[in-house]
Design brief:
7-stranded mixed β-sheet; alpha/beta; about 40% helix; about 200 residues; Rossmann fold; about 15% strand
Length: about 200
């Protein structure tokens, strides 16, 4: 993939445990394209074991994919603002909880502080949503972020319209094209895609 040589790309992962393994190939691809990847893990990934993996397993997998250990605290990522560290930040997977917090300027985790720091500098933040309530209670937050300057999305669709009609999930294979478009100030289109 072109356009990432020499770039510093932040990649924040929130607690959509069943999705984490699906974004790791794109993280590895970024490194192969010459980017420096800065991984950021949410507290949920660091503290919750599920049938999809344990905190130790996620730590090892993300470290291997990114080529460096993740940042995990607000003080770790706060310098991104004044130092203008990142060219682009991917938040993928971005849970409904993180989506709501970002839309309402709540900065209570490392991924959200990284996003705040990035937006402070007018630099792109790319959200890869994975939430069961994007078309439910979280629809207002999604709408707010869709019109927020410097916020872009990995194209998404309803992953289970019959079983979970309010759910939206991004197409993980489009993380890098979405980030590349965001670096050029564009939203990758079409935004809405069938699953």
């Amino acid at each position: 993939m072109e356009g990432f040589e020499g770039r510093t790309v932040g990649w924040a992962l929130c607690g959509s445990h069943h999705t984490v393994a699906l974004v790791l190939p794109a993280m590895r691809q970024l490194r192969s394209a010459g980017a420096q990847v800065v991984p950021i893990l949410s507290e949920t990934l660091l503290s919750t074991s599920t049938r999809h993996g344990t905190p130790a397993e996620w730590w090892a997998a993300v470290t291997a994919a990114a080529g460096r250990e993740p940042l995990t605290t607000i003080p770790d990522v706060e310098p991104f603002g004044p130092e203008r560290t990142l060219d682009v930040l991917l938040v993928a997977p971005c849970t409904g909880s993180s989506l709501a917090r970002l839309a309402n300027a709540i900065t209570d985790s490392a991924p959200l502080m990284a996003a705040k720091a990035q937006l402070r500098n007018g630099r792109p933040v790319v959200l890869g949503v994975s939430t069961n309530d994007a078309l439910g209670l979280n629809a207002a937050n999604l709408a707010r972020l869709l019109v927020t300057r410097h916020v872009y999305f990995v194209p998404f669709g309803q992953d289970s319209p019959e079983g979970k009609p309010a759910s939206l999930v991004s197409h993980w294979d489009l993380c890098l094209p979405a980030a590349q478009a965001a670096l050029g100030g564009r939203q990758l289109q079409p935004l809405l895609r069938a699953w």
